[in-house]
Amino acid sequence: MTTFRSLAFVAWLYLSLALFAGGLSPALLMPYPQAMWVIRNWSRFVLFGLRWIAGVKVEFRGMEHMPVGAALIAGKHLSMLDVIAPFAVLPDNCFIMKKELAPLPFFGWFAVKTKMIAVDRSAHAKALKDMVKQARLRFAEGRQMLIFPEGTRAKVGAPPDYKPGIAALYRDLDADCTLMGTNSGVHWPAHGFRRYPGTVVYEFLPAIPAGLKRAEFMEVLEARLEGASGALLRAPPVPLSALPGEGRDPVLS
After folding, report:
1. pTM for the predicted model, two decimal places
2. Does a structural domain hold residue 102?
3. Residues near 198 by beta carbon (within 8 Å), at least 6 away in sequence
4. Does some domain include residue 247?
5. What is the DSSP letter of 26?
């Protein structure tokens, strides 16, 4: 049953890309807010299918800590879902992505239109400078910049490997850094097509205040983000029927 539901959801995912890319592609010619509307509603469409086809509900916690204006957010990265889900709740999300994704139909086109931060990771030091430069512009526009400090999806239980990019942004922007823990990899693994029923939780944590020294910031960042994500990963699975708010919006409940 898990295999069948997973395959059905993969079909739903690709169908959603075709529908939104084809049917709503004129938004690429419209002002920025219309393009963001498409991405936000595509995210909700994907989460709806994930809930009702694959049996995976997405829950957001710590909403009192979710930033609404210009902000720097560091998230644990265990799944492709981590790139999709935050658009459902962040008012003006801007994530940092690999430059190779920019030419991709729909995803890349709308990412470019909405000024996501594309980084050529093979350029090393130049890539870091370019990322910081783009981040300043997006921060000035009031965007919420989401970065995954490990740079790529990690398997559940893998040792953390935090890269220096987040520290460069934290120092250059002189901004607080909000954290977002998750257990997403349990239900939508980093690799493979299977989706395992249960509840994916994204938890916004209190921000790390601006002004810490680089070493202290990285130490606090890793300890808090790994601690929160580890607690979610160790939590016993919650049956969907036991969750509050059944019958409400499956994205926001």
Report:
1. 0.89
2. yes
3. 55, 56, 57, 186, 187, 237, 238, 240
4. no
5. G
